[in-house]
Write a structure and sequence with these properties.
single chain; globular; 2 domains; alpha+beta
């Protein structure tokens, strides 16, 4: 059985190589960005992993890797263009990214700019070397030689990504833990893993009690105890950057989800790594236009609410100081973020048209028929409005007692 599998994929790869040169000559922009080729003998679904070969093509260089693959996504799973999770048999460093075995091919279907995730991740990492967000590369994806569209190839957040010391029994990792909700919420699959513990396996060591204690502290600690001990629970510098990014991107969806919480070793408190930021920069997560008509309300998150309300925490002073530092260093500026958008544009602008031929711009999945260039202009307009708006907000905040 195994030898048959290898023979099938050997001939599939030879066929791929023979056809690849002809395709390159036919399309002048074929290799402007890297390609990821998936060769699979079976349909790829959401239910279980399938064996496949992954061919990483970077200009004229080819790397063939054995792997498993499955479709992934929550809300986005309803779209015809699917995202994939790839788990290579051995760690590999594709396209200059860090060496990993777990990767995500993000279809980025609902965001016509393909930039909102990547832009948010890049800004968050620029804010501090301690901030974690996936590194990304744009790729064209092919399944059994058939073009699937433009994708964002990105790191998957796991224990290794977070730098977790696996010899330390205090370390843990959670995805979208509902720790900022006062009442227990019910959602599918939460019965035996309420906080969605990703590391360690909950059957090996259960951190539910630790997160319960954090949750209880957030809602029930006295004001003086909250201010005295909150820094023992969670990294306030990291929270400050996360708070600023939420305000900058206007990502209301990211207040109580779309993040990981992790503890990397016994000497560091909990930290936040961000994830899923298509609800940002002028659009909501379902693609509805939102040019700041509705603004993120950070008081809906108990951690940010208490930090902002309690003067003895000195959090507002820290928040204003960090905003000013980011503005002075030009990490956050209209020109800087426009430059970051344009940098992405020059990478993908020759490839988006081909993607939208396959996945039309006027699909019923979208609220409007806005095209790629209009969406880039929308992001420009958003930044021109939002940064001066936040300058005024932080100026007024600094004047309050």
């Amino acid at each position: 059985m195994k030898s048959t599998f290898l023979i099938i994929f050997f001939f599939a790869f030879i066929s791929f190589l023979l056809n690849s040169c002809a395709e390159k000559n036919a399309e002048y922009n074929y290799c402007k960005i890297p390609h990821v080729h998936i060769i699979s003998g079976k349909d790829i679904g959401f239910d279980k992993k399938r064996r496949c070969l992954i061919i990483f093509e970077d200009y004229s260089k080819f790397s063939i890797k054995k792997s498993t693959i499955k479709c992934r996504g929550g809300f986005s799973s309803k779209f015809f263009k699917h995202s994939y999770r790839i788990e290579l048999d051995k760690k590999y460093s594709p396209f200059g990214l860090p060496k990993e075995d777990d990767w995500i091919l993000n279809a980025n279907y609902i965001d016509k700019t393909f930039m909102r995730h990547k832009l948010s991740y890049d800004i968050f990492r620029l804010m501090s070397p301690n901030n974690l967000a996936p590194e990304c590369v744009y790729v064209n994806v092919y399944l059994n030689k058939k073009y699937q569209g433009l994708y964002v190839f990105m790191q998957r957040i796991n224990a290794k990504f977070c730098g977790i010391d696996k010899k330390d029994r205090t370390t843990c990792l959670f995805k979208d833990p509902p720790v900022f909700f006062e009442e227990k919420i019910s959602f599918p699959g939460s019965e035996n893993n309420y906080y969605d513990q990703k590391y360690p396996e909950i059957s090996e060591q259960d951190f539910t009690e630790a997160l319960d204690k954090f949750n209880y502290f957030l809602f029930n600690a006295s004001d003086s105890l909250f201010c005295a001990d909150i820094g023992k629970w969670i990294d306030i510098d990291n929270v400050t950057d996360w708070h600023i990014l939420l305000l900058l991107s206007n990502n209301a969806d990211g207040l109580n989800k779309n993040f990981y919480i992790y503890k990397k070793d016994k000497n560091t408190p909990l930290r936040i790594a961000i994830w899923d930021y298509d609800h940002s920069f002028g659009r909501d997560g379902d693609n509805e236009l939102n040019l700041l008509k509705c603004q993120v309300d950070c008081s809906k998150n108990i951690l940010l609410k208490r930090l902002m309300e309690l003067e003895e925490c000195n959090y507002k002073i820290k928040l204003v100081k960090k905003w000013n530092e980011l503005r002075d260093s030009k990490i956050i500026s209209v020109c800087k973020i426009k430059f970051m958008i344009l940098k992405n544009h020059f990478i993908i602008n020759h490839d988006v048209e081909r993607n939208f031929e396959l996945w039309p711009l006027n699909s019923t999945d979208y609220y409007d028929d806005s095209n790629y260039l209009n969406e880039v202009a929308l992001m420009f307009k958003y930044i021109e409005i939002r940064i001066p708006q936040l300058d005024n907000y932080f100026k007024k905040l600094s004047q309050t007692k």
